[in-house]
Amino acid sequence: MSFRSYSNRQTTLERDIVLKGAGVHSGAEVSLILHPAEANSGYNFYVSGGKNAGHVPGDFRSVTNLTLCTVISGADGASVATVEHLLSALRGMGIDNADIEVDGNELPILDGSAEPFVAAIEEAGVRELDEARRYIKILRPVAVTDGGSIGEIFPYDGFRLDIEIDFPTPLIGRQRIDLDVTPASFKKHLSRARTFGFMKDVKQLWAAGRALGSSLENTVAIGEDRILNPEGLRYPDEFVRHKTLDAVGDFALAGAAILGLYRSKRPSHKLNSMMLHALYENRDAWTVVEAADKTRRHYVSPRADFGIAFATPNFAPENA
């Protein structure tokens, strides 16, 4: 199938993907293997190394830490950090089901964006499964706040993100992007945006055992008056695009693709997670539907018996 639009049937990878690299926070070298998975299984992580090996469901209720990245943990104590870039690539490119094997407690940062994952997904190929794609369809607005950060989700026939950041430095300033997310738009407009950090924060992060694997090869480094990366930025507004990439990854933990418009000012991993919890708590704000006609993109029919998470219960600076 084409990567330009979403299939109305569930998908998985055509074959395994193997990637290796350092974790941005731990600095440890890790190996990552993505396997094809069955319909309705979603994203499942299997930690075979590091501390407390075991299974970690790719579910928003598995989130245990949101400081600088998204960390998820399983019932047996296994955990894996910095999952948002991989999940962003999987969800953005329309992969619904994947088993993810990692031999450490953090995914590799690679170049700090989702582009290496996207390239690997395209090379591996996508397999359509027999089951219809399922969606969480937003029925009414829901809002959350966290200090000066605001997140709102609205009904919409598609998955649209309207993200705004505002940093006091003129190197970033106020940036906004409003995008319908499809495989084509994700690859073109979001996938290459890298994580970023301020040089003034580096010593404090290192002292806290963070950003030990960060470098100019995987992070946009912001100095007092200039971007320190010799190649500069990949997009003029790369910072807000990376925040949007992160949001796609965090929303991948919903349990199914979302039909809705998410609008956020000063976004963070915490705010994105709060939004998913607020949706779960407001059961009348959404319903689960499935694609009804493969020839049409977003025509859906209700599905009452769907046992999805909802039906049955980086380094980038956070608040921007």
From TrEMBL:
Q: Name one Pfam family in it.
A: LpxC
Instruction: Output one GO MF annotation.
Output: UDP-3-O-acyl-N-acetylglucosamine deacetylase activity
Q: Where does Zn(2+) bind?
A: H85, H242, D246
Q: Name one cellular component (GO) term.
A: membrane
Active site (record annotation): H269
Q: So what does this thing catalyse? A: a UDP-3-O-[(3R)-3-hydroxyacyl]-N-acetyl-alpha-D-glucosamine + H2O = a UDP-3-O-[(3R)-3-hydroxyacyl]-alpha-D-glucosamine + acetate
Q: Which cofactor does it need?
A: Zn(2+)
Which EC number applies? 3.5.1.108
UniProt KW Membrane keyword: no
Which keywords has UniProt assigned to this entry?
Hydrolase, Lipid A biosynthesis, Lipid biosynthesis, Lipid metabolism, Metal-binding, Zinc
* Classification via InterPro entries: Ribosomal_Su5_D2-typ_SF, UDP-acyl_GlcNac_deAcase, UDP-acyl_GlcNac_deAcase_C, UDP-acyl_N-AcGlcN_deAcase_N
Q: Which GO terms are recorded in the biological process aspect for this UniProt protein?
A: lipid A biosynthetic process
In which pathway does this enzyme or protein participate?
Glycolipid biosynthesis; lipid IV(A) biosynthesis; lipid IV(A) from (3R)-3-hydroxytetradecanoyl-[acyl-carrier-protein] and UDP-N-acetyl-alpha-D-glucosamine: step 2/6
Similarity field: Belongs to the LpxC family.
Q: Which function does this protein serve?
A: Catalyzes the hydrolysis of UDP-3-O-myristoyl-N-acetylglucosamine to form UDP-3-O-myristoylglucosamine and acetate, the committed step in lipid A biosynthesis.
**What is the protein name stated in its UniProt record?**
UDP-3-O-acyl-N-acetylglucosamine deacetylase
